[in-house]
């Protein structure tokens, strides 16, 4: 008998059972048809979905969406796609979009690995951003971390030549792993000197959590790499 556990893919997340608030549920029901995307729909036609061309930014794991909404509001000509597996966060994002009149975001509530594989065409993205992914801080759980060689290669194939991969974490050990993985990955170039972290770009909003961490002396590490034009 085949052991299905051995062949089940390792997930970088655990689905939490927290309930949506009434406001999140209402926002989801009212706005999903406008701004939601379905993994089952297959390859994404950006220009058709947004009704216009424009730079394409994919954010993986946007949490409750505050940062993504702020970035979209500041760059109205850019087309943002967010992926988040936790439905309360999707509901909160849709609520904020409606409340703040931000309409240049589309969202998947699905596994990012599957969305990337099935819905995002090769060489179609200008930027991929992953901010504060789950650090899985216990050593035995490091295999669950999202930033692994195979996933980084999948991201590279979806970026346009010259496109940007921007990562950020507040766990030094994860930052070191991210730097090791990206520095060894084929077809990427660090925008800083080899092995160096980037200063926080002005377009990445400072979250309340991050600002509190800075006051307490906690570090945050940004990594900004580009897909080599020859790769």
TrEMBL record:
GO cellular component, one term: tRNA methyltransferase complex
Signal peptide: none
Pathway of action: tRNA modification; N(7)-methylguanine-tRNA biosynthesis
Pfam families cross-referenced by the UniProt entry: Methyltransf_4
Catalytic reaction annotation: guanosine(46) in tRNA + S-adenosyl-L-methionine = N(7)-methylguanosine(46) in tRNA + S-adenosyl-L-homocysteine
InterPro entries named in the record: SAM-dependent_MTases_sf, tRNA_(Gua-N-7)_MeTrfase_Trmb, tRNA_methyltr_TrmB_bact
GO molecular function, one term: tRNA (guanine(46)-N7)-methyltransferase activity
EC number: 2.1.1.33
UniProt-listed Gene3D superfamilies: Vaccinia Virus protein VP39 (3.40.50.150)
Protein family membership: Belongs to the class I-like SAM-binding methyltransferase superfamily. TrmB family.
HAMAP family in the cross-refs: tRNA_methyltr_TrmB
Reported function: Catalyzes the formation of N(7)-methylguanine at position 46 (m7G46) in tRNA.
Name this protein carries in UniProt: tRNA (guanine-N(7)-)-methyltransferase
Species classification: Bacteria, Pseudomonadati, Pseudomonadota, Gammaproteobacteria, Cellvibrionales
């Amino acid at each position: 008998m085949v052991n299905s556990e051995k062949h089940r893919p390792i997930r970088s997340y655990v689905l939490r059972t927290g309930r949506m608030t009434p406001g999140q549920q209402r926002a989801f029901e009212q706005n999903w048809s406008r701004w939601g995307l379905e993994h089952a729909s297959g390859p994404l036609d950006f220009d058709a979905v947004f009704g216009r061309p424009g730079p394409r930014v994919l954010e993986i794991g946007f949490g409750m969406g505050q940062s993504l909404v702020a970035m979209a509001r500041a760059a109205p000509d850019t087309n943002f796609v967010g992926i988040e597996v936790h439905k309360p966060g999707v509901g909160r994002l849709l609520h904020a979009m409606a409340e703040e009149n931000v309409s240049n975001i589309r969202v998947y509530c699905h596994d990012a690995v599957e969305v990337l594989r099935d819905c995002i065409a090769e060489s179609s993205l200008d930027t991929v951003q992953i901010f504060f992914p789950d650090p899985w801080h216990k050593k035995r759980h490091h295999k669950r971390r999202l930033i692994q060689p195979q996933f980084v290669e999948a991201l590279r194939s979806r970026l346009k030549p010259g496109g940007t991969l921007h990562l950020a974490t507040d766990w030094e050990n994860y930052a070191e792993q991210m730097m090791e993985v990206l520095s060894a990955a084929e077809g990427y170039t660090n925008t800083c000197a080899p092995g160096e972290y980037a200063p926080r770009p002005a377009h990445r909003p400072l979250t309340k959590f991050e600002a509190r961490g800075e006051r307490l002396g906690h570090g945050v590490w940004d990594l900004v790499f580009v897909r080599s034009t020859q790769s």
